[in-house]
Amino acid sequence: MHKLSRPLVCLVGAAAMASLSACGTLGGGNRGRTDTRYVARDVNTLYNAAWQRLQRGQYAVAAALFDEVERQHPYSVWARRAQLMSAFSYYAANDHTKSIDSARRFLSIHPGNRDAPYALYLISLNYYEQISDVTRDQAITRQALDALGELVRRYPTTPYAEDARLKIDLVRDHLAGKEMEIGRFYQRRAQWLASVVRFRTVIDEYQTTTHAPEALMRLTESYLALGLPEEARRSAAVLGANYPGSRWYDRAYALIQRHAPETAAAAPAETGGTR
C-alpha cells in the first residue's frame, strides 16, 4: 500500500491552498533544528513553519510545530486545522500512536466538524497499517475493523466510507486467516475438537471470505477424525453446494468416499450452504 493514500494527499493540498501567507516563515540554515523549541511566535510564523516542514517530508518536525500552533494559539481559527494537520503529519511519520491520539482529540473537541469523517478515517488507517501477519496477535486487526466499521456507520456516503468498505473485506479475510492458522495448528497436533471450534468460527463469522471453502474441508477432516461421519458428510455437502468445482470439495469428497462410504456426500443436493 502506498503510504499516502489519495484522500490524504487531497487533505494536504486543501491545507496548502488555505495556509497562511508566508510573511512570517523561519529562516534557513541550521535554524530548523530549533523549530520545535518553545518560543512564543505568532500563529502565522508557526503554521507556515509547520507547513514548510511537511512539504519537505520532515513529518515529525511538522507534527510538533502543528502541535505548537494549538498550544500557543488555542483559540485561533488555525488551532483546529493544526490539530488535524498534526494527526496527518504523525501518520506520515509512521508514528501511529500519536496520530491516533491527535485525531481522537480533534473528534472529541469538534465532533460535528465537517472534517470529522477524515479524522476517523485517519484513525482507521493508522490501525490498518499496523496489521501484522496471521502468525501474530491480531488485537490491532480487530481495532482496525472496529474503526472502519464505525466510519461506515457514521459517515456512509463519504469517499472515506467507500474506501473503508474495501478495507473491511480485507480485514475480515485476514481475521479468518488467523482462525485457519490456529485450526491447522490444532489439527497437526491431533486436537480435533479444538480445530473444529476454529473452523466453525470461520464458517459462522467469516463465511464470505476466501477461507470458507478450506474451512469446510478441514471440518470434514476433523469430524472424521472424531468419529462423526454424519457431521463430516454435512460439511462436505455444504462445501459441494457452494463450491462444487473447487479443489477443496474434491478433497472432502474423496475423504468421505474413503473413510465413510456408507454416508457418501451427495453434495450439491443438500441445502443450508454458507451463502
Written overview of the protein:
The protein has 275 residues and is an all-alpha fold. It has a domain at 1-130: Tetratricopeptide repeat domain (Serine Threonine Protein Phosphatase 5, Tetratricopeptide repeat). The protein has twelve helices and no strands. It has helices at residues 6-18, 43-55, 59-72, 77-92, 96-109, 116-128, 139-154, 159-188, 192-205, 212-225, 229-242, 247-259. Helix 10 (212-225) packs parallel to helix 12. It is elongated and about 85 Å long. The model is unreliable at 6-10, 15-34 and 265-275 (pLDDT under 50).
Summarize the structure.
With 275 residues, the protein is mainly α. The chain has a domain at 1-130: Alpha Horseshoe (Serine Threonine Protein Phosphatase 5, Tetratricopeptide repeat), CATH 1.25.40.10.
**CATH homologous superfamily name of the domain at 1-130?**
Tetratricopeptide repeat domain
Along the chain, the helix and strand elements come as HHHHHHHHHHHH
CATH fold category name of the domain at 1-130 = Serine Threonine Protein Phosphatase 5, Tetratricopeptide repeat
The rough form would be described as elongated
CATH class of the domain at 1-130: Mainly Alpha
First and last CA, distance: 30 Å
Strand content: under 5%
Relevant terms:
mainly alpha, Serine Threonine Protein Phosphatase 5, Tetratricopeptide repeat, elongated, 0% strand
Element layout with pairings:
Layout (H helix, E strand, L loop, with lengths): L5 H13 L24 H13 L3 H14 L4 H16 L3 H14 L6 H13 L10 H16 L4 H30 L3 H14 L6 H14 L3 H14 L4 H13 L16
Helix pairs in contact: 2-3, 3-4, 4-5, 5-6, 6-7, 6-8, 7-8, 8-9, 8-10, 9-10, 10-11, 10-12, 11-12
